[in-house]
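Re-run requested by the PI after the first attempt was lost when the workstation crashed. Everything re-entered from the original request form. Ligand of interest: flavin-adenine dinucleotide.
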Amino acid sequence: MLVEKNVPLQPYNTFHIVAKALVLVRLGKLEDLQAVIAHPELGPAPKFVLGGGSNIVLTGDVKPLVLKVELMGRRLLEETPKAFIVEAGAGESWHGLVAWTLQNGYPGLENLALIPGTVGGSPVQNIGAYGVELQDRFESLDAVDLVTGESFTLNAAQCGFGYRDSVFKHAGTLGLAGRALITRVRLRLPKPWKPVLGYADLDKKMAQTRVASPTAQQIFDWVCEVRRAKLPDPQVTGNAGSFFKNPTVTAEQCADIIAREPRIVHYRLDDGSVKLAAGWLIDACGWKGKSVGQAGVYEKQALVLVNRGGAQGSAGGSGGATGGEVMLLAKAIQTSVYERFGIRLEPEPVVV
Ligand SMILES: Cc1cc2nc3c(=O)[nH]c(=O)nc-3n(C[C@H](O)[C@H](O)[C@H](O)COP(=O)(O)OP(=O)(O)OC[C@H]3O[C@@H](n4cnc5c(N)ncnc54)[C@H](O)[C@@H]3O)c2cc1C
């Protein structure tokens, strides 16, 4: 086990915020984790689990021990008449896993293509895109208790998945944030494969290409194209994807808002509630393109906050936005959306 001190974290977070890990240990194998837990000083220390750093805002140097998850491996665990069960190490790239499953003839993850981050990070906020959430393809995961070192397995119900939520996002007695490290994830990819369509962007692609029955590979390619056109590439412009969750309101609240704002973008959910497009609310408050220091609101999509100064490669250089600037901007946006619509926006990334 190699214990590293004062490790720059700018290359390890997609916002490219400059910060250091005071102490960092890379976990390339499970024994590294057991060695940390058994260590007289590191064992009892508070810990922060770092995956691909694509859903965090660093507001300063990280004082808890940073455990950087680099547990690799992916395989077809089982094939049944009804599904392929695929297993991957928590340190694998999520997008790499999606591409690998398609190349090997196990479709089902194509709508979740190009989401940055690791396999181990994917259950934490139950990643979702284009009509599919992780929980729709989830079988189980293995994790290690960071206090006792014991391994345990959780099924979907035990993970408590919700919209961009799971037990791993919550601290306290009911949550596992900071208490457990996910080591392996298993996914169930149903047979026969059925495409998940019905999203405006995918419908547009079907109309443009005149393909009425796309293959999983075509959906994968379309999702990648649409995402590249809509979202800033973190390699070029630091960001953490959508910064706020889309808020859900009751049908009555929605009717009240529509009476005032007839153009508001909204989607009715099966339970009668209504999901509002947070990007639309932010745009309506005039935030698109605005900045606080070097933290800004992306010109093409108001839901995405960007680092106007920090791209990968400028390690230790110009600095770019600080986590404090990102959070000041986020708070100002929350305040103006609340004042105008009475709705509290909840941030999606984890503030560290
Ligand atoms: C350009 C862009 C687009 C994005 N698009 C989407 C999208 O479409 N849908 C979506 O849902 N998300 C999206 N995201 C957010 C992000 O990619 C996902 O949330 C991703 O799953 C985070 O994984 P990570 O490995 O980077 O986690 P990190 O950012 O490293 O960590 C996030 C949280 O998970 C915890 N964590 C990470 N790994 C583990 C582990 N092995 N065990 C326990 N806890 C762990 C961390 O402690 C932290 O609390 C996007 C981000 C970017 C930058």
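Saved to the shared folder this time. The chain has a mean pLDDT of 95.
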